[in-house]
Specification:
With 155 residues, the protein is α+β, with helices and mostly antiparallel strands. It contains 4 helices and 7 strands, in the order αβααββββββα. It has helices at residues 2-12, 26-34, 36-39, 132-152, and strands at 16-22, 49-55, 62-68, 74-85, 89-97, 103-116, 119-127. A 7-stranded antiparallel sheet has the order 1-7-6-5-4-3-2, covered by helices on one side. The protein is globular, with a radius of gyration of 16 Å.
Length: 155
């Protein structure tokens, strides 16, 4: 029993949960996550752009993004949508891809969009990271991206 509890604690420390409230209804926030022409305006940390964005938003559909950092470095990621409940929830796999196209460690990203007095309470859950360091890096990236999303939404 102790080994199982220890493994559960170790797993929990490699999970990321972020909650934000956006001054827009869930349907608009959901569209910002599922429509490429909206997503490219805010996705990625501050200073990043999205020169390539392919999305097939349906269960089993894939996405491929190429973000470009302020230093000109490209960062590629891909995944597969597992669940889409408009405008309440998105679930997809998440994998960084190296320059040769080789995928790295896969995590599961779940985003909930809950109505809260005309606003949207967004809860992002991503797990399980390879390390606490990887989790913390994603936390910083998501925080910056969600700041950009807030600025993008009509308010």
């Amino acid at each position: 029993m102790v080994a199982r509890d220890s493994a559960a604690a170790k797993s929990a420390e490699r999970e990321l949960v972020i909650t934000r409230v956006f001054d827009a209804p869930p349907r608009l926030v959901f569209k910002a996550w599922t429509e490429p022409e909206r997503l490219i305006r805010w996705w990625g940390p501050q200073g990043f752009t999205m020169p390539a964005c392919e999305m097939d938003v349906r269960p089993g559909g894939a996405f491929r993004f190429r973000m470009r950092g302020p230093d000109g470095t490209d960062h590629r990621l891909q995944g597969v949508y597992r669940e889409i409940v408009e405008p309440e929830r998105l679930v997809c796999t998440w994998t960084w891809v190296d320059a040769e196209g080789k995928p790295g460690h896969e995590t599961l990203l779940t985003v909930h969009f809950a109505e809260q007095g005309g606003k949207t309470k967004l809860t992002l859950h991503q797990a399980i990271f390879e390390s606490v360091t990887a989790r913390d890096g994603h936390q910083d990236g998501w925080a910056s991206s969600l700041d950009r999303l807030a600025a993008h939404l009509p308010g």
